[in-house]
Write a structure and sequence with these properties.
Blueprint lengths: L5 E2 L4 E4 L4 H11 L2 H4 L12 H13 L1 E2 L2 E7 L12 E7 L11 E7 L8 H15 L4 E6 L4 H9 L3 E6 L7 E7 L1
Antiparallel strand pairs: 1-2, 2-4, 3-4, 4-5, 5-6, 7-9, 8-9
């Protein structure tokens, strides 16, 4: 099974595949210095296209109700190439203590060439709608302190900033919540 295709006025959110185009797009995002340093508990750049392909295939396996990782394409945007420019996600948020978690995280990571066009916010709004349609009551976004762009997306989504916490991923993030 794959995540459902979701659309906005300008965007297509679709399942990731192991295709060359998806692997190369993922590598371009996850190896970019301005992106990888904000991702995960122990940020590291993606080493090569084959590692990116394995990541795409792992992402394609996450599909459970509201959860999934979507490739973001921009077919409705003039002057922006139609290829995956990033990822939007809703996934289980792992607790630092290893205890089971039913908290869901919303997130995004885009190539810098896609920044400043409202793509992350538009994709995230569509995922909020998708989560509501599946009965989700609350979404978290965890953002490293200093990641002003992601903090701004959280603000545009209307999320409440709870402040720094080490509850998730075994590291300190600024936690945001959106009650649906």
């Amino acid at each position: 099974m794959t995540v459902p295709e979701l659309r906005t006025e300008r965007l297509l959110l679709r399942a990731w595949t192991g295709s060359d185009a998806d692997a190369e797009a993922t590598y371009a995002v996850l190896s970019h210095d301005e992106v990888w340093r904000w991702l995960g508990a122990d940020p590291k750049p993606c080493p090569d296209v084959e590692a990116a392909r394995r990541t795409c295939l792992r992402w394609a396996e996450i599909d459970s109700g509201p959860q999934g990782l979507w490739a973001i394409e921009t077919p409705g945007m003039d002057g922006v190439p139609v290829q995956p420019c990033g990822t939007a996600l809703v996934v289980t948020l792992p607790r630092s203590d290893g205890a089971p978690s039913d908290a869901l995280e919303i997130g995004w990571h885009l190539h810098p060439s896609a920044w400043g066009h409202g793509i992350a916010t538009e994709a995230a709004h569509r995922l909020v709608q998708h989560a509501r349609e599946h009965g989700v009551r609350r979404l978290h976004a965890v953002v490293y302190e200093g990641n002003a762009r992601s903090m701004a997306v959280c603000d545009r989504l209307g999320m409440t900033r709870l402040g720094p916490t080490d509850e998730w991923y075994g590291t300190t993030f600024v936690d945001h919540v959106l009650d649906l």
